[in-house]
């Protein structure tokens, strides 16, 4: 799992987002949001600070999920982290 967490962090940093992020927290937040959801495509938003929120684009399957992208909305702009 550690590799997944690190990959999340690295892709977000590569998108230009410089604030600290924790891959394990992002992964757990997604898991909590998708619990008991029907298979399909979803967009989840998570407010991180007063002026920053993360927009998760996720495809949910029967036994797994695919994180397609995260758009990080800040006062400085939108940072797009593509996971596909």
Explain what this protein looks like in three dimensions:
With 84 residues, the chain is α+β, with helices and mostly antiparallel strands. It has one domain (2-82). It has two helices and four strands. Helix 1 crosses helix 2 (23-34). The model has no long low-confidence stretch (mean pLDDT 96).
- Give the amount of beta strand, in percent: 35-45%
Number of strands: 4
Q: Return the domain count.
A: 1
Helix/strand structural class: alpha+beta
Kindly summarize this structure in a few lines.
With 84 residues, the protein is α+β, with helices and mostly antiparallel strands. Helices cover 30% and strands 42% of the residues. The chain has two helices and four strands; from the N terminus they run H-H-E-E-E-E.
Keywords:
4 strands, 84 residues, alpha+beta, single chain, globular, 2 helices
List the helices and strands and how they pair.
Elements: H1 2-14, H2 23-34, E1 40-49, E2 52-60, E3 65-74, E4 77-82
Helix pairs in contact: 1-2
